[in-house]
TrEMBL record:
Keywords: Aminotransferase, Pyridoxal phosphate, Transferase. Coiled coil: none annotated. CDD domains: OAT_like. The lineage of its organism: Bacteria, Bacillati, Actinomycetota, Actinomycetes, Mycobacteriales. This is Aspartate aminotransferase family protein. The keyword Transferase applies. Pfam families: Aminotran_3. It comes from Tsukamurella asaccharolytica. The keyword Transferase applies.
């Protein structure tokens, strides 16, 4: 690596960062991206091992997506989606998403990102039970190690306690947490508090930010069945796993036949070219709101933004044409194959993967993960540390097997350094 290195600015406040250290040591500033690579302001090239924050599924710098956004902006950037308004592009995207939804005839409620989608799901779950005449069903159950975004609902529901600390207590009442890998814990909780008070259970099919934790065999179907048997809505948080990331199907919910009542998405929906999220609502949950005479008083100014919808249409075209939902299975295998070679490394505690184009290398010393990410950069790879001291691997779905091998080799060099 050569060039001027990090850029220092005391103006930009980064999320999830020690700003004193960022200002002191400099920020990692990117100037451009191309395919599986990103380039810093000095022109140094890095393999993007994480597709940004799990979003750049079709890779960086795709002119076709930029052209679609430009064309839309010149027609109309956006109109409100409140009331009976929409743009033709937004309507077309909703129809297209309905066609690939895990539950046929799902309704698509657009948001501006993953946290919006999660908080919308939590509100809709509670609102649904009110409409069904069961207002006492309010408790929303999440899992340890879970990440559901940083809005008030998602922060309260998340299973990473430090993320909810420092606000003077729980932000949103009526949430509970069960062990991430124990379906019986969910059953026990429902039996203890009574199904009549539980509105919904929320689960990431593969826990992402909390540490790349694939579900135990059979877990997802079991919790889904427990929810069904107890009249608890099952919410799949597919902000990371959706749109081909998990491979073999558009959604983990389809691959594992989960039939979620609600499904939250964002990220891969537009590959991050323009912010956008979408909440998928199964028809039986939407029914009270579509029967006539009832409003859901909820929405975001930029929900269904026309330029984002145009970006999404172009991204879905690329995904289909380049078979990226199938390619994710190739990456599932190559990530596990290449990263497994690190399993015997003295600094490595565990290598996890095998469920889509996501993998994690957990270190014995969680505190070393951030330092290893910095060493990885010196090896030409842009990486990230997720929870439990786990190095995150979620490359663009266009990443080649050779590039995956290079990411693994660079990780070994970083661990040795
Ligand atoms: N849900 C999950 C599972 C996520 O991983 C994330 C973000 O990483 C979110 C929700 C929040 O999404 P956003 O950061 O777009 O608000």
């Amino acid at each position: 690596m050569s060039g001027q290195g990090p850029t220092t600015s005391s103006a930009l406040w980064h999320g999830f960062a020690d700003m004193g250290a960022v200002v002191r040591d400099g920020a990692f500033v990117f100037a451009r991206g191309e395919g599986a690579y990103v380039f810093d302001t000095a022109g140094n090239r890095y393999l993007d091992a994480t597709a940004g924050l799990w979003f750049a599924n079709v890779g960086h710098g795709r002119a076709e997506v930029a052209d679609a956004v430009r064309d839309q902006l010149l027609k109309v950037a956006h109109v409100t989606g409140f009331g009976d308004g929409a743009t033709d592009t937004t309507v077309a995207l909703a129809e297209r998403l309905q066609g690939i939804a895990p539950v046929p005839d799902s309704k698509i409620f657009f948001t501006s990102g993953g946290s919006d989608s999660v908080d919308s799901a939590i509100k809709l779950a509670r609102r649904y039970w009110q409409e069904k005449g069961r207002p006492e069903k309010k408790l929303i159950v999440g899992r340890s190690n879970a990440y559901h975004g940083m809005h008030v609902g998602g922060t309260s529901l998340g299973g990473i306690p430090v993320n909810a600390e420092g606000y003077g207590g729980v932000l949103f009442d009526d949430t509970a947490t069960v062990a991430w890998d124990d379906a019986k814990a969910l059953l026990g909780l429902i039996e203890r508090v009574g199904a009549e008070s539980v509105a919904a259970f929320v689960a990431e099919p593969v826990i992402g930010a909390g540490g790349l934790l694939p579900p135990p065999e059979g877990y997802l179907r079991e919790v889904r069945d427990i929810c069904r048997e107890h009249d608890v809505l099952f919410i799949a948080d597919e902000v990371v796993t959706g749109f081909g990331r998990i491979g073999g199907a558009w959604f983990a919910s389809s691959r594992f036949d989960l039939q979620p009542d609600l499904m939250t998405t964002a990220k891969g929906l537009t590959s991050g070219y323009v912010p956008m999220g979408a909440l998928f609502v199964a028809p039986h949950v939407a029914e009270p709101f579509f029967a006539g005479g009832v409003w859901w008083r909820h929405g975001y100014t930029y929900g269904g933004h026309a330029a984002a919808a145009a970006a999404s249409m172009a991204v879905l075209d690329i995904m289909e044409r380049e078979n990226l939902v199938a390619e994710a299975l190739r990456l599932q295998d190559s990530l596990l194959r290449e990263l497994s070679t690190l399993a015997e490394h003295p600094k490595v505690k565990d290598v996890r993967g095998g469920v889509g184009a996501v993998a994690g290398v957990q270190l014995h010393e969680p505190a070393e993960a951030m330092a290893t990410v910095k060493k990885l950069r010196a090896q030409g790879v842009s990486g990230r540390a997720a929870g439990l001291g786990t190095l995150q691997y979620s490359p663009a779905l266009i990443t080649t097997d050779e590039q995956v091998a290079e990411i693994a080799a660079a990780t070994r060099r970083a661990l040795d350094a």
